[in-house]
Amino acid sequence: GRLDEALLAGRKAGATSAKGRHAMLEASSRDSTARVLLAGGHVQEAVSEAERALTLLPAAHPVALTARTSLADALLARRGAGAAALALAHARSVVEALDTDPSRCRAPASTLRVHIDALEANGLVDEARQAREEARGWVLERASKIRSEHYRRTFLEGALDVARILRRGSDVRPGRGSST
């Protein structure tokens, strides 16, 4: 279906970019492919694609930050020994970059949601609650800047990571992990 089409397109774009030696385009394609693989339940392949994307660019590059978020999300889904701790380290590094220079982060809602998931997966209840409140504040502030009621509603209800941030209650339980 659609995931298969997206996967094929991502892999073609990655291969074309690699042949042309366009590291940023290849990394972006690999990151997109990782997200498609994760959506399709191919967790280990998603981890591998995101890791490969990270090898192509400097750590502070916006595409690398997005790939690091994708890697953290895939690690949370993998749930192996140490995966949650590693996911949290990656998520924290991207949140720090977002705090330092928001313009470098291409997917802030995804970053904030994955950070919350990683905190929860590591049983850091108070930090997760605080991160959730900060993420909600970010979402609502951004939504308040959208003049069109239609586009504001689309942002708040249609953007999956935004909707997940807003949908979360304040009843974080230790070890809950990523909710899908």
Write the layout of secondary structure elements.
Blueprint: H1 2-19, H2 23-39, H3 43-55, H4 62-78, H5 83-100, H6 108-121, H7 125-144, H8 149-158, H9 160-167
Describe this structure in words.
The protein has 180 residues and is mainly alpha-helical. 75% of the residues lie in helices and 0% in strands. It has nine helices and no strands. It has helices at 2-19, 23-39, 43-55, 62-78, 83-100, 108-121, 125-144, 149-158, 160-167. Helix 6 (108-121) runs antiparallel to helix 7. The radius of gyration is 16 Å and the shape is globular.
Percent of residues in β-strands: under 5%
Structural class: mainly alpha
**In sequence order, what are the helices and strands, one letter per element?**
HHHHHHHHH
Please report the number of helical segments. Answer: 9
Average of per-residue pLDDT values = 87
Shape: globular
Indicate the radius of gyration in whole angstroms: 16 Å
Query: Helix coverage percent of residues?
Result: over 70%
The residue ranges in which pLDDT falls below 50 over 5 or more consecutive positions are: 170-180
Rounded to the nearest angstrom, the distance between the terminal CA atoms is 20 Å
How would a crystallographer describe the biggest sheet?
none
Number of strands: 0
